[in-house]
């Protein structure tokens, strides 16, 4: 019985991850008015790395040589995606950035089909299209393809590769060690990005609280949960679950930020939620046969 319910529990876990990520948008927007982007990312992931290592020091040493190599590859991919996405955000609006980043829901099945020769069923494609339309309604106010959009599109492709890699390589047994080593590598990548302009830290207690929250909850804990959950899900199903991030971001911005509730939020959010329900209600074998984990 426990084994039968694990995929559904994994989906709920990814929804919690999406909620944690969504809660950071209005905090980050405020914080970055006083702190450099690369400095913020490096500090955030450094705190998360230290926390993961302290919680279970032997986790990384217990990884096989193959898993360590995979964790490094995943960490580099995610770290570069963070830097590229953030640089893209400097050249485009937050709403367009949110939509283009969410295009990993399209790239994930496409790259999975090309790289790992996964067969994507019609239910999965319909859910992907529905989620994409929802993201567009939620985020877009017009779209021109400039430097910012191209950089953000590249980051979406990198996030899709990260999702595919986690889906193929993570297992419940290696989830913690894989997360810890990934986080260390992400810290190194973001630290390199912070070097040119020097390194600074938050100047107020309020900013430190925000950084620590985003490091521990939306960083360390979220990555552990994502890595564990993707050991039980197909990459496409995981990607669709994580498209709830902008829905949660809009909800938190209305509740705790300065945004107002709009028809776009309601309609776009409803479409993304509908895609989630489709994933859960569609014939399960259409999704479960899509990927084989490659842990060994």
UniProtKB/TrEMBL annotation:
Domain named EamA: residues: 9-139, 148-279
InterPro entries xrefs: Diverse_Substrate_Transporter, EamA_dom, EmrE-like
Transmembrane segments: 38-56, 96-116, 123-144, 150-169, 176-196, 208-226, 238-256, 262-279
Subcellular localization: Cell membrane
Primary site of residence: membrane
Organism, as annotated: Kribbella rubisoli
Keyword Transmembrane: yes
Family: Belongs to the EamA transporter family.
Membrane-related topology note: Multi-pass membrane protein
Protein name per UniProt: Threonine/homoserine efflux transporter RhtA
Record SUPFAM superfamilies: Multidrug resistance efflux transporter EmrE (SSF103481)
Pfam families on file: EamA
Domain of life: Bacteria
Residues in coiled coil: none
Key words of the record: Cell membrane, Membrane, Transmembrane, Transmembrane helix
Signal peptide: none
GO CC terms, sorted: plasma membrane
UniProt key word Oxidoreductase: no
């Amino acid at each position: 019985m426990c084994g039968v319910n694990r995929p559904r529990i994994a989906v709920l876990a990814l929804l919690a991850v999406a909620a944690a990520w969504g809660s950071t948008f209005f905090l980050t927007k405020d914080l970055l008015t006083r702190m450099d982007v690369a400095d913020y990312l490096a500090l955030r992931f450094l705190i998360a790395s230290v926390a993961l290592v302290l919680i279970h020091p032997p986790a990384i040493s217990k990884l096989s040589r193959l898993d360590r190599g995979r964790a490094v590859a995943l960490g580099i991919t995610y770290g570069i995606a963070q830097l590229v996405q953030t640089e893209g955000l400097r050249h485009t609006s937050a709403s367009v950035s949110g939509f283009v980043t969410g295009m990993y829901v399209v790239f994930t099945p496409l790259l999975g089909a090309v790289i790992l020769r996964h067969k994507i069923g019609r239910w999965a494609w319909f859910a992907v299209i529905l989620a994409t339309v929802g993201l567009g309604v939620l985020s877009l106010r017009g779209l021109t393809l400039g430097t910012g959009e191209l950089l953000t599109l590249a980051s979406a492709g990198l996030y899709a590769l990260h999702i595919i890699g986690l889906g193929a390589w993570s297992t419940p047994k290696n989830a913690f060690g894989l997360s810890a080593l990934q986080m260390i590598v992400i810290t190194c990548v973001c630290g390199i990005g912070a070097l040119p302009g020097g390194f600074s830290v938050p100047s107020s207690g309020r900013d430190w609280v925000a950084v620590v929250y985003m490091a521990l909850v939306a960083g360390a804990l979220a990555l552990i949960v994502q890595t564990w959950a993707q050991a039980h899900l197909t990459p496409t199903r995981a990607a669709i679950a994580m498209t709830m991030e902008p829905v949660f971001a809009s909800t938190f911005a209305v509740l705790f930020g300065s945004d107002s509730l709009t028809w776009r939020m309601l309609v776009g959010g409803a479409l993304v939620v509908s895609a989630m329900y489709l994933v859960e209600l569609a014939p399960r074998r259409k999704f479960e046969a899509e990927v084989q984990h490659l842990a060994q």
